[in-house]
């Protein structure tokens, strides 16, 4: 009876359009510690967000800096 229930649940997940995918590890072959190997993968790369206002928001280069001299002085 239990096998029938498990197979029904398994078939229903595929009928609903839910697909189970495997993640393709990009940093070589996992040998000893799978969890540590996944932590150093690009999947869990830390994204550093810069502040747009407040502390740490100063940018030396402008976001859309095209010309150095935009004033109408002629020089």
Walk me through this protein's architecture:
Residues 5-9 have low confidence and may be disordered. The termini are far apart. This protein has two helices and no strands. 27% of the residues lie in helices and 0% in strands. The chain has a domain at 23-48. The chain is elongated. The chain is mainly alpha-helical and 75 residues long. Residues 53-75 are annotated as: Disordered. Residues 56-66 have a biased composition (Basic residues). InterPro entries: ArfA. This is Alternative ribosome-rescue factor A.
Summary, kept brief:
With 75 residues, the protein is an all-alpha fold.
Rounded to the nearest angstrom, the distance between the terminal CA atoms is: 88 Å
Q: Give the beta-strand count.
A: 0
Shape: elongated
Radius of gyration: 26 Å
Determine the number of helices (DSSP H or I, runs of at least 4 residues). 2
Structural class: mainly alpha
Whole-number mean pLDDT: 70
Pfam family, one: ArfA
InterPro entries: ArfA (IPR005589)
Region (Disordered): 53-75
Biased composition (Basic residues): 56-66
Record keyword descriptors for this entry.
75 residues, mainly alpha, 2 helices, elongated, Alternative ribosome-rescue factor A
What is the secondary structure topology, with strand pairs?
Elements: H1 2-15, H2 34-39
